[in-house]
Specification:
The structure is a single chain. This protein has two helices and five strands. A five-stranded mixed beta sheet has the order 1-5-4-3-2.
């Protein structure tokens, strides 16, 4: 990764696991995913409010997300100033909201 925002430890583990999984699926695919993720991280760094606002009525924490290019993943992050904190690299169709407790 070019930029190193704060990563929740579980989000960093998700990233590593997904890159490895995708590279096992097709050599180089995980590397493409990592490059697409770099683009998203750079975008968040430049425009932290660009991500879609995720709403949890029970929480006062502002969580935003952006998609990862052609991959079915979203980067969920909390903008608590510079740097922001990535709390999940989540597949768009698996276990929605599993990461919610990481935002607090």
């Amino acid at each position: 990764m070019k930029l190193d925002p704060g990563f929740h430890p579980a989000a960093r583990s998700e990233l590593i696991a997904e890159v490895m999984h995708l590279n096992d699926e097709r050599p180089g695919l995980g590397d493409e995913f990592a490059r697409a993720l770099d683009t998203v991280i750079e975008m968040i760094a430049m425009w932290p409010h660009a991500g879609a606002l995720w709403s949890d009525p029970a929480s006062s924490v502002e969580v935003r997300s952006l998609g990862v290019g052609r991959f079915p993943f979203r980067v969920f992050y909390v903008n608590r100033g510079t740097p922001f904190t990535v709390i999940a690299i989540a597949h768009a169709a698996r276990e929605p909201g599993y990461w919610v407790t990481r935002a607090h």
